[in-house]
Amino acid sequence: MTNDLSFAIVMNAGSGHQDAAIAREEIASILDAAGRPHRFFLFDGGGDIADVVRDAIAYAKASGGAIVAAGGDGTINGVAAAAWREQLPMGVLPQGTFNFVGRTHGIPTDTRGATEALLRATLGHAQIGMVNDRVFLVNASLGLYPQVLEDREAWKQRFGRHRIVALWSGLATMMRGYRPLRIDVSDGTRSRNLRTPTLFVGNNALQLEKIGLAEAADVQRNDGTLAGLVLKPIGRLTMLGLIVRGALGRLGDAQNAVSFAFREITVTPKRHREKLKVAVDGEIVWLDPPIVFRAAPRPLALLTDGVRQPGEDPG
């Protein structure tokens, strides 16, 4: 049975390679032809998305509809956090570079295919992670990875939003050197003192498969399990080797990478800091320690036309 919901569409006008105006016209044309009520709430990617999402939530509530994210993983995160909090159904129209959320749930990467899939979608559930009070669907991390994301954004503003730009900026940051984190990590029963370049937490089975972590299967179950990854202190050449392994889907076999499945961990820095820089689905936020990673106590209500199975990659 397909849905008959109206759609409040939060659209990032600056996301991905597609021209936002053309994508918006195509989405509207398909929805109009189907007689489906909808309204666009545009976000230019340069300001606070919260006000736009707030207006979209109000429309969805008033019309008894769903809120829809049209953008990359960062836009999807902002919409998902509000949809989860308000317990509203959510749809996704991928418009970004990597589109891990859409691809994980079998949502086509092209605008027409994704919009047609939204019309026939049924309501399912998607696990989401939390870092303190922030929601994430793909990943959250401390240390080197947030710096990679900051530098990548600067490269993209200069050279354009292309995957090759993202790759080269990441290589440049990692090869430049880093200051390791000194943290205490506890799962409630055991604590470990770690010195590591980065702590990465994944909630997306597709991304975890891509880099070669066996814990992808644990996350795929959607039973409250997340995947953690820490790197041992290493030199630049070893770091380059790990990057290559990740690109080849073999990071889980590396001696200098330690991955693990968990339900909740608490991270406390050895040196007191007022806030820690955390990357949340590609966006940088500052959070007060201790930093707690866990799955949310209830899933996100997600409109999907089919859930991707392990080993498949629709895009």
Structural notes for this entry:
This protein is an alpha+beta fold and 315 residues long. It folds into two domains: 7-127 and 299-304, Rossmann fold; 134-295, Tumour Suppressor Smad4 (Sandwich), CATH 2.60.200. Helix content is 35%, strand content 30%. It is built from ten helices and 18 strands. The chain has helices at 20-33, 50-63, 73-86, 100-104, 111-120, 144-159, 163-176, 205-211, 216-220, 236-247; strands at residues 7-12, 38-43, 66-71, 90-94, 122-126, 129-131, 134-136, 139-143, 181-186, 191-196, 198-202, 226-231, 257-262, 264-269, 276-280, 283-287, 291-295, 300-304. A six-stranded antiparallel β-sheet has the order 7-6-17-14-9-10. Strands 13-12-11-8-15-16 form a six-stranded antiparallel β-sheet. The longest helix has 16 residues, at 144-159. It is elongated. The protein starts with 6 loop residues before the first strand and ends in an 11-residue tail after the last strand.
